[in-house]
Amino acid sequence: MYAVIKTSGRQWTVKEGDVITVNRLAANAGETVTFDEILLVGGAKVLVGAPLVKGAKVAATIKEHLKGEKVTILKYKRRKNYKRTRGHRQALTTIQIGKISV
Question: What pTM did the predictor assign?
Answer without folding.
Answer: 0.83
